[in-house]
Design a protein that fits this description.
Length: 256
């Protein structure tokens, strides 16, 4: 396994590449690239543009093979559950039709933004919904944005993670991979929950509890804007961070 640690736009980055099935089985992770932006507590960020620029720099090489083709951006999650609302909030901010009204050039032939909800809300398989849309629009790649779980409380809302190995949800309800949707799946995740410590003497089989910061809604708002700006800058090279922020603000306030 290859591993590198470096600084990009003042943000520590850890990059690793699992290349063999032997290493994959040992680590319990599929083969692929894993990139972690160690932002520190996302509710205490000062230089938002630095984190956005770092995310652009790390994400663009993963998306570059699909330039000129159709990209399906997917915001996963439950809008009504604050820790799980990252994907839907990115979908509110990244609106391809809006950006295309202001720019002349896109790196992709077509961009679709979808928000398929969750199995519990729709009573439909999220994987089947995404696979059906991918097949209909002939997408070359799916870029998924979703809230995630972390094992270490110090990582809670303190990093942005990328991988080209797909997505397997914590509750085993969603498994998005090339084998399940038909095209490569790239994921952007932010850990917004962690497992609560088990009380001494707790009964075996007791419901598992997850912890999340009390201000997770504010963290989701900030982080979703950074991610939406990063995707927009990759997709529409004419845009810079400030113009993305401006257009997103207009959209959220129903000005455009």
């Amino acid at each position: 396994m290859e591993r590198k640690e470096y600084i990009s736009h003042d943000v520590p980055v850890v990059w690793s590449h699992i290349q063999t099935e032997q290493v994959s089985e040992a680590l319990g992770r599929p083969c692929g690239q894993y990139i972690t932006l160690k932002t520190g507590p996302l509710d205490k960020l000062i230089f938002f543009e630095n984190v956005c620029s770092c995310l652009v720099e790390q994400l663009q090489p993963l998306l570059a093979p699909y330039f000129g083709k159709t990209l399906c951006v997917c915001g996963l999650g439950n809008q009504d559950l604050a820790p799980d609302a990252l994907g839907p909030e990115v979908a509110r901010r990244f609106r391809p039709k809006m950006f295309e009204s202001f720019v002349k050039k896109s790196r992709f032939g077509k961009i679709a933004m979808i928000c398929p909800g969750t199995n519990g809300c729709t009573n439909l398989s999220t994987v089947e919904i995404i696979a059906g849309i991918v097949n209909t629009i002939h997408a070359a790649c799916v870029l998924v944005v979703d809230a995630s779980y972390c094992g270490d409380v110090e990582d809670l809302c303190g990093m942005i993670c990328l991988t080209d190995s797909g997505l397997h949800s914590y509750w085993d309800t969603v498994d998005l991979r090339q084998s399940s949707v038909g095209v490569p799946v790239i994921t952007i995740g932010v850990p917004t929950a962690t497992r609560a410590p088990v009380e001494p003497g707790a009964e075996s089989g007791a419901p598992e509890l997850l912890l999340t910061p009390i201000n997770v809604s504010d963290i989701i708002q900030t982080t979703s804007s950074i991610i939406a700006c990063a995707i927009a800058q990759i997709a529409y090279p004419e845009l810079d961070y400030e113009s993305c922020k401006q257009y997103i603000g207009f959209s959220l306030n129903n000005i455009i």
